[in-house]
């Protein structure tokens, strides 16, 4: 996929684009490899589909590699992911051995010599331990919420993380107090405003796409776009929707998610959510295997009168940024990176439970002027802080500071 920084000038401004060009000139030709667990189905892959081509456009030799793993590995890393976000279930010694074995195997497949290898999230975190000589500098990028981790899991991870020259986090409160050594940098993620998921769609096109999935464009629509994951709380969204229906009986709900290859729990929770909907014809539960791709997600977010992201834990929540960018009134869980995007009552609403989410949903659906005001303010927040050019600049600054 081709990306040109020049295409973003009208959104990012000439000052930011000029700063990026100046930084990139100092780093021209540097070899950068990003390593992640999956090529699709989550925010990490979406970011890399834009970031890597933009790095190339400004003169870096940037690449992206996806690790290989079987079900036993991804079962362990999903448990690890949940544990680092606070799940109390322990990880056994045998499971840690599976994690190490797959990381050692994938380390052997790292080809070439690199100025910087960026390892994304816990799944490939031990690559650095098994292939330290493949790069001059190593950075670990954390995309999850480590503010209240399972301490036993964190303790096993810390020696792995201390090997890195830099660690990169969404928020300061995610950085473990016991992590010492190495450069630490706070870099919130960003969305690509020119991607099919975020480009401007006409109201007519958005309505047409939603109609193909049984949504009535003449009736109010509540929507959440997320992986089917307990932390995203789609069941809590259904509870909120049912309370909204008591006041706005014509409301509809769309739960739109993607099934990722590194999330073996996804199908189990998808079916649990489906059962909880209990055959309600006004609850649409859709995923990327129902032909719901980037354009369809864009259409649902653009068509929605209320977008929810009722997360119980959230590293950042790029689906919130996506909704804000589309000017939609947005309700988010008061967790993780969501309050960085939603200023309560100004750019959306922050909530703590289904009852509060329903109350705010009814308020928005009953007051079109409020919905417009929140939408305008939210779009400006996204434009100022959470678009790809700012993210690219932050990575170039990190490379400069690491003397890559």
What distinguishing features does this structure have?
404 residues; 6-stranded parallel β-sheet; 16 helices; 15% strand; globular
Describe the structure.
- It contains 16 helices and 12 strands.
- The chain has 404 residues and is α/β, with parallel strands linked by helices.
- 44% of the residues lie in helices and 15% in strands.
- Helix 4 crosses helix 5 (93-108), helix 9 (234-245) crosses helix 14 (354-366) and helix 12 (318-325) crosses helix 15 (368-385).
Short description:
The chain is an alpha/beta fold and 404 residues long. It has helices spanning 9-12, 14-26, 43-57, 71-84, 93-108, 127-130, 151-162, 203-211, 234-245, 266-277, 294-303, 318-325, 338-341, 354-366, 368-385, 388-401; strands at 31-36, 61-66, 114-120, 135-141, 166-169, 183-186, 221-225, 252-257, 283-287, 306-309, 330-333, 349-351. The radius of gyration is 21 Å and the shape is globular.
Low-confidence stretches: none
Q: How many separate helices? A: 16
**How much is the average pLDDT?**
94
Strand element count: 12
Main structural class: alpha/beta
Distance between the termini: 26 Å
The biggest sheet, with number of strands, parallel, antiparallel or mixed sense and barrel status, is:
6 strands, parallel
Order of strands in the sheet with most strands: 2-1-3-4-5-6
Helix content: 40-55%
* Apparent shape: globular
Write the layout of secondary structure elements.
Blueprint: H1 9-12, H2 14-26, E1 31-36, H3 43-57, E2 61-66, H4 71-84, H5 93-108, E3 114-120, H6 127-130, E4 135-141, H7 151-162, E5 166-169, E6 183-186, H8 203-211, E7 221-225, H9 234-245, E8 252-257, H10 266-277, E9 283-287, H11 294-303, E10 306-309, H12 318-325, E11 330-333, H13 338-341, E12 349-351, H14 354-366, H15 368-385, H16 388-401
Parallel strand pairs: 1-2, 1-3, 3-4, 4-5, 5-6, 7-8, 7-10, 8-9, 10-11, 11-12
Helix pairs in contact: 2-16, 4-5, 8-11, 9-14, 12-15
């Amino acid at each position: 996929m081709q990306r040109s920084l020049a295409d973003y000038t009208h959104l990012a401004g000439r000052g930011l684009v000029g700063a990026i060009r100046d930084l990139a000139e100092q780093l021209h030709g540097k070899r950068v490899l990003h390593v992640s667990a999956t090529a699709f189905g989550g925010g990490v892959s979406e970011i890399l589909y834009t970031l890597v081509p933009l790095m190339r456009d400004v003169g870096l030799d940037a690449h992206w590699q996806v690790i290989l793993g079987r079900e036993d590995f991804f079962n362990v890393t999903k448990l690890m992911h949940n544990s680092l976000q606070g799940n109390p279930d322990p990880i056994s010694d045998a499971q840690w051995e599976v994690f190490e074995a797959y990381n050692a195997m994938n380390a052997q497949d790292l080809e070439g010599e690199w100025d910087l290898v960026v390892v994304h999230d816990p799944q490939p975190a031990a690559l650095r331990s098994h292939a330290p000589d493949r790069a001059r500098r190593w950075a670990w990028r954390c995309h999850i919420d480590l503010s209240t981790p399972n301490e036993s899991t964190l303790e096993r991870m810390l020696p792995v993380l201390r090997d890195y020259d830099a660690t990169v986090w969404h928020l300061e409160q995610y950085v473990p107090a016991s992590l010492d050594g190495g450069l630490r940098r706070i870099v919130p993620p960003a969305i690509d405003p020119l991607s099919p998921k975020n480009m401007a769609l006409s109201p007519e096109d958005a309505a047409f796409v939603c109609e193909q999935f049984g949504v009535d464009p003449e009736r109010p629509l509540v929507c959440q776009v997320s992986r089917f994951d307990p932390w995203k709380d789609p069941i809590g969204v259904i509870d909120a929707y049912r309370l909204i229906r008591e006041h706005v009986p014509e409301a509809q709900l769309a739960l739109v998610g993607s099934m990722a290859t590194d999330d073996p729990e996804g199908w189990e929770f998808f079916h649990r959510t489906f059962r909880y909907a209990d055959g309600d014809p006004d609850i649409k539960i859709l995923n990327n295997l129902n032909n719901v791709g980037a354009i369809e997600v864009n259409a649902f977010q653009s068509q929605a009168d209320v977008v929810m992201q009722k997360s119980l834990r959230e590293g950042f929540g790029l689906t919130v940024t996506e909704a804000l960018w589309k000017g939609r009134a947005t309700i988010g869980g008061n967790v993780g990176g969501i309050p960085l995007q939603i200023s309560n009552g100004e750019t959306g609403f922050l909530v703590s439970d289904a009852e509060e989410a329903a109350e705010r949903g009814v308020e928005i659906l009953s007051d079109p002027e409020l919905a417009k005001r929140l939408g305008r303010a939210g779009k400006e927040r996204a434009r100022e802080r959470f678009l790809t050019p700012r993210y690219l600049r932050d990575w170039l600054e990190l490379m400069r500071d690491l003397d890559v």
